[in-house]
Amino acid sequence: MSREVKYYIVAADALPEVFIKVAEAKRMMQTGEAATVGAATRMAGISRSAFYKYKDSVQPFNDMKAEHIITFYGMLKDNTGVLSRVLSVFAASGANILTINQSIPTNGCAAVTISAETSDMAESLEALLAEAEAVEGVVKFEVTSA
Fold first, then answer.
1. What is the domain count for the chain?
2. Number of helical H runs and strand E runs in the chain
3. Domain check: are 73 and 103 in the same one?
4. Strands (E) located in the chain
5. With contact defined as beta carbons under 8 Å apart, do 42 and 21 qualify?
6. Can you give the pLDDT of all 146 residues of the chain as single tens digits?
7. Which of 1, 54, 120, 137 keeps 20 to 30 A from 63, CA to CA?
8. 6 in a domain, yes or no?
9. Residues 21 and 89 in one domain
10. Gap between the Cα atoms of 138 and 82, Å rounded
């Protein structure tokens, strides 16, 4: 049974400083200001262990008036129609799929990444994730970047 993930929007000044610094280190790596995790963490003033502890949990909030593109990662069983049913969940939610990349199945499963523009969604991100993960044949489904 998977752990339910909840998301909160919190003002930056209410967060522990380490979360802000992790987000800054991630930004530096994405923009090329830092070539390695070590360089980014030194520049942000945090330890590498703090970065690795929080890197998957800290995401800057994008202004909802702007384009909001989210990348999802899923592990799907190699059964007919699984990917199609997952894509139907996206269509029903109002998300606009931009890219789909699927690996060749190995050991009965295939990894898939889906990037979608989500600003016109009729439901919450948590609901989309729950519905996608509930599709028969989905082993894992999560957000990788926002």
1. 2
2. 5, 4
3. yes
4. 69-77, 96-102, 109-117, 138-145
5. no
6. 556 777 777 888 898 999 999 999 998 988 889 999 999 999 999 999 999 999 888 877 654 434 588 899 999 999 999 999 999 999 999 999 999 999 999 999 999 999 999 888 888 888 899 999 999 999 999 988 76
7. 54
8. no
9. no
10. 7
